[in-house]
Design brief:
single chain; alpha/beta; Rossmann fold; 4-stranded mixed beta sheet; 7 helices; binds guanosine-5'-monophosphate
């Protein structure tokens, strides 16, 4: 069996990468979405092992120290990382694995998994990104301000990725992602 592919989808928080990934999975059930590990508290309705593996900061440090994460990053005061073993197992079984991760971690993938295809989702503009973050209603004003500040720095790094896709229209953005993955 030939090896599968690793696809890292990144972009600033609020850009719509979660929605795009959900649509992509609905259309292509053969894709495997990696479940990340995080130290942040579960939000209402989030399920352990499905949305995230929720761990303590000490446990997260152990995962880093023992090389069990393919990448990791600190984001808005919490840690997030991709469990290495599950991803590698799926890829060896020939599956295409998706990561939906923030930008610093996606940058590390270039070193830890050079064959990966790294896609960067851009907002049409920063004002639209701010509106989307507010509409989501999950974050405090302080968290929104931090996420926006970080988003501006992240957008400057977009050219380091293999493909840049502007999420102005969901269907068009989805078609471009499909084209990049399945071409
Ligand atoms: P949230 O707290 O809203 O679920 O996620 C915050 C950010 O962390 C999002 O941009 C999300 O894509 C990112 N994220 C989720 N899992 C991972 C991961 O395993 N690694 C990295 N680097 N970022 C992640």
């Amino acid at each position: 069996m030939s090896s599968g592919q690793l696809i890292a989808i990144t972009g600033p928080s609020g850009v719509g990468k979660g929605t795009l990934v959900r649509l992509l999975l609905a259309r292509h059930p053969e894709l495997y979405l990696s479940v990340s590990t995080t130290t942040r508290q579960p939000r209402p309705g989030e399920v352990e092992g499905q949305d995230y593996y929720f761990v303590s900061p000490d446990r997260f440090k152990t995962l880093i120290a023992t090389g069990q994460l393919l990448e990791w990053a600190e984001y808005a005061g919490n840690y997030y990382g991709t469990p290495r073993e599950k991803v590698e197992t799926q890829i060896h079984q020939g599956r295409t694995v998706l990561l939906e991760i923030e930008v610093m971690g996606a940058q590390q993938i270039k070193q830890t998994f050079p064959e990966a295809l790294r896609l960067f989702i851009l907002p049409p503009n920063v004002a639209e990104l701010e509106r989307r973050l507010r509409d989501r209603g999950t974050d405090t004003e302080d968290a929104i301000a931090k996420r926006l500040q970080r988003a501006k720095a992240e957008i400057e790094l977009s050219t380091e990725f293999n493909v840049q896709i502007v999420n102005d229209n969901l269907d068009q953005a989805l078609a471009k992602i499909e084209q990049a993955i399945f071409n």
